[in-house]
Design goal:
354 residues; alpha/beta; TIM Barrel; 2 domains; 7-stranded mixed sheet; 5-stranded antiparallel sheet; 11 helices; 14 strands
Length: 354
């Protein structure tokens, strides 16, 4: 999409696919990023759309993208030279040790140093700097105490969920050991909520029995893609086949563990993802994290599947996935995904805005 197209074309697509205009414009922002070259190629931004000033959205987008119709002008985000949103802040999206989501009720941790990950071919993390210092077992308690002082909280009892987003353990045993230690530390600080991890290495029956001792617990399987896995993924992820992933989810459910999955939409043909989701939803307790693939460089452009450089690809994906997921009680939550296909609506249903 050139800078001269922008809003007119988006309005046409919104009508054609029966998608709210705000959803479409935020999806386009995720896909095309921002023309302005800021925040070292990848930025965290809080945007408040001018036509929906009651809501503020946290987005993480590529910057310095020459084909984007979005650009920054002071505290405004422009869409084809028309103000789309006010911007509260812009900062480089580095890996942080911990941060809050969902109005402070959910804590995301990176206690395994995500920056050490060897990475998958399409992932921007290994191309960027990070400020996630290595944290040892003994230092977790120190960091949690410092976190509580910073927030002026007595303990972690108000936090209902803590998710370990670092899945770069390399092997199942290391991940399980870390989780056991982490649950013990969190318990000392008054946390009784659900502990979760994004991982692809936790798979076995024995591992599920261990995780069951940490309940309430959630395993979010980082599947990433359905096809071309040997090409796109590092070996520890590629070794998990889509068929085995279904069995892993089933094992987790048998042990009373909550389940989710993360898929990067735009790496596979929509048909392949749809076919896999139809089977997977039988074993999911959480709405799947279906992320729009973001390209941060011409190199990353190469890994898109055919058509995934076009917004209509993602509108078709949204329609196909809704047809499957609308038959379940699962619904998207805005705090769970910073690159989603849904914002204010899911099919004919309205979603709660942040």
């Amino acid at each position: 999409m050139s800078q001269t197209q922008g809003a007119i074309r988006l309005d046409e697509l919104a009508s054609q696919y029966r998608v709210p205009g705000l959803d479409l414009k935020l999806m386009a922002l995720n896909l095309y990023g921002i023309y302005s070259n800021t925040a070292d190629g990848r930025a965290r931004i809080e945007v408040r759309p001018v036509d929906h000033s009651e809501s503020e959205w946290h987005v993480i987008v590529p910057t310095g993208r020459d084909n984007s119709p979005y650009r920054l002008a002071g505290d405004s985000l422009l869409l084809s030279d028309t103000e789309f949103a006010k911007v509260r802040f812009v900062e480089h999206d580095d890996a942080r040790l911990g941060y809050l989501r969902d109005k402070g009720r959910v804590l995301t941790l990176n206690t395994n140093r995500r920056s050490n990950c060897t990475g998958c071919l399409f992932c921007p993390n290994t191309l960027a700097d990070a400020n996630d210092p290595r944290i040892t077992k003994s230092e977790i308690d120190e960091w949690l105490a410092a976190f509580l002082r910073e927030k002026a909280w007595a303990d972690l009892s108000s936090v209902r969920e803590i998710n370990l987003s670092t899945g770069c353990f390399g092997e199942e045993t290391r991940a399980l050991e870390h989780l056991v230690d982490l649950r013990a530390s969190l318990t000392k600080f008054g946390f009784k909520g659900r502990l979760g991890i994004l991982s692809s290495v936790i798979r076995s029956e024995g591992a599920m029995r261990t995780l069951s001792t940490l309940r309430p617990f959630a395993l979010f399987l980082t599947l990433e893609c359905i096809t071309r896995r040997d090409l796109l993924l590092k070996e520890s992820k590629a070794s998990l086949s889509p068929e085995e992933a279904i069995r892993v989810l089933s094992r987790a459910r048998r042990e009373g563990i909550d389940t989710g999955v993360m898929i990067v939409v735009g790496l596979d043909d929509i048909v392949d993802v749809t076919r896999w989701l139809k089977e997977a939803v039988l074993h999911l307790t959480d709405f799947p994290n279906l992320q729009i693939f973001q390209s941060h460089s011409p190199y990353m452009d190469f890994f898109r599947t055919k058509g995934a450089d076009n917004l209509e690809f993602f509108l078709r994906a949204r329609t196909e996935f809704e047809a499957i997921l609308s038959l379940t009680p699962l619904r998207p939550h805005n705090w769970q995904n910073y690159r989603p296909l849904w914002y204010t609506s899911f099919g004919s249903e309205k979603l709660q805005c942040p």
